[in-house]
Amino acid sequence: MLSHWRLRPGGSATPGASLADRILAARGVTDPRFLDATLKDLHDPSRMPDLDKAAARVLEALDRDQSIVIYADYDVDGVSAAAILWHTLHALRPGCRVSTYLPHRIDEGYGLNKDAIAKLADEHDLIISVDCGITAATPAREARARGKDLIITDHHTPPHHAADLPDAFALVHPLTPGREAYPFPHLCGAGVAYKLAWRLATLRSGGDKVSPPLRTLLIELLSLAAMGVIADVVPLVGENRIIARFGLSQITRSSLVGVRALCEESNLPEGVDAADVGFRLGPRLNAIGRLGHAKEALELLTTTDAARAHEIAAALTGWNNDRRRIETEISKHAEQLAIDRGMTSDDHRAIVLSDPSWHRGVIGICCSRLVGLFHRPTILLQQDADLCHGSGRSIDCFDLHEALAACSSHLETFGGHSMAAGLKLRAANLEAFREAFVAHTNQRLRPADLVARTIVDAEVSAADLDLDAVTRLASLAPFGRDNPEPRLLIRGATINGVPKTFGAAGNHVLFDVEHRGRRLRVKFWSGASMLSKHGVRLAHHTTLDLLCTPKIDTWNGNRRVEAVLHDLALSS
């Protein structure tokens, strides 16, 4: 235990610096507004390429009573983005002719497709994509050929060259090739949609400030944008952190009946954090799109019928339970296949597996599970006749989208970003693709990269963890990618008293330690099984190095600091 961890440079004690400041300095965060950023720190939406052009066209469509369709991806990010625009357009022009379209994951696949665009172009005057479309050159040509404007809003990796971009009326993307980059490149699809909604509101209001009703709406829509930010696992820094921080505070007090119903169905506490979205709300919204059609997830976020909202929320829980069962079965199967086929050794630095029995809508989550187990890029595919449809997930030091581009001669289509992607290839090309992809990863990764390492933010003493310091530390939240929950190291703490187990199964461990004259309570969730697995026995006077996160316990109304343990080692 504690065999693969690394202290950040600058994580040692710094005289006079607060604990929060030490951690930010160790992480290289130099923004003085990081802890205290407000909504005023969000960038002007007009700085995003083509956003003003897109907003003007949308307002023109509303004023002319043209028919508008929002074409969305089927995941949480896409559904949230579509709901943001849907609510905004209805607020700008009540009774407007706005509908939504979500492709079927299995029947149509990700993103804009030519057949759907052809049908929608015949039925609507304006098509707006959210969370998809930046590589959709053929569908864009179809819209153009039928004389209809297509506005693409997206955040996925665009083509490298401007000549390969879709020929659309507007391309709203933070990093459009050939155009000035937006100051923050890491927005998710819902974040881009929120920027468009914001600009629509200011243009309609005739200035930089929006009318009170539209301001109230934009604050409300932060709850949807936050769900997209967190569920899409984009870096929780910069604008994403601001959106998530203020959006999380809106979720449980939302006026949107669908959001309230989802919270009630998920048994959320009053104070919602990123983990609640990532593990309770997000999976429910995602599940129906993975196993069926996501249109009900979008209906939930747009309906004004409370009874219908509760009906959908309950159904989403059922879908999510089915998803979890299927995911467990596929993950266990894929894990064993990876081991049996030698894909977990140091000389095979990627996993590429295919099986016709796997459910195409779930394999992306199973990829994440295998990445967690084996810490290497993983691609899982479902073979259907002569085609293989797959998903991939990566590790921080490996750009998955770049790797797929390097192997693109074996692929029919692919898209995504550095950490997650989708792909399609002919079954006849599977073995050639597998060899090319593994060769690429073997060149880019070292055996040391295949070991998950815990980054330690700072080495501390028990005395550093007082109520004021830990309260300030909590202001680093929300936690997620690129802004993880703090991990602190306490060396040479001595157990005081006999450790106790608790919980229905007795699998959690609680004990006190003494460290440099201060006492600290330590809680080790699921610690009993981990200690048993490694043959470690804790007893009175045992001296330990502790890897932990400090929390404030409020049991019985009393506030006290406790250390939530992640890992430990017997001190030498």
The major pleated sheet works out as: 5 strands, parallel
Quick one: how many beta strands?
Answer: 18
Oligomer state of the chains in this structure: single chain
Largest beta sheet: strand ordering: 3-2-4-5-6
Question: Which stretches of 5+ consecutive residues score pLDDT under 50?
Answer: none
Radius of gyration: 25 Å
Number of domains: 3
How helix-rich are the residues, as a percent range?
A: 25-40%
N- to C-terminal separation? Answer: 13 Å
Number of helices: 17
* Molecular shape: globular
What do you see in this structure?
With 572 residues, the protein is an alpha/beta fold. It folds into 3 domains: 5-27 and 457-570, Beta Barrel (OB fold (Dihydrolipoamide Acetyltransferase, E2P)); 42-318, inorganic pyrophosphatase (n-terminal core) (Alpha-Beta Complex); 341-447, Diaminopimelate Epimerase, Chain A, domain 1, CATH 3.10.310. The protein is built from 17 helices and 18 strands. The protein has helices at 19-26, 51-63, 76-92, 114-123, 137-145, 189-205, 212-231, 238-251, 257-265, 274-291, 295-302, 306-340, 363-374, 400-406, 430-444, 467-473, 527-533; strands spanning 5-7, 68-72, 98-101, 126-130, 149-153, 170-172, 351-354, 378-384, 387-393, 413-416, 420-426, 454-456, 458-459, 488-502, 508-515, 518-524, 543-553, 560-570. A 5-stranded parallel beta sheet has the order 3-2-4-5-6, sandwiched between helices. Strands 7-8-9-11-10 form a 5-stranded mixed beta sheet, with helices on both faces. Strands 14-15-16-18-17 form a 5-stranded mixed β-barrel. α4 packs parallel to α5 and α9 (257-265) packs across α11. It is globular. The mean pLDDT is 94.
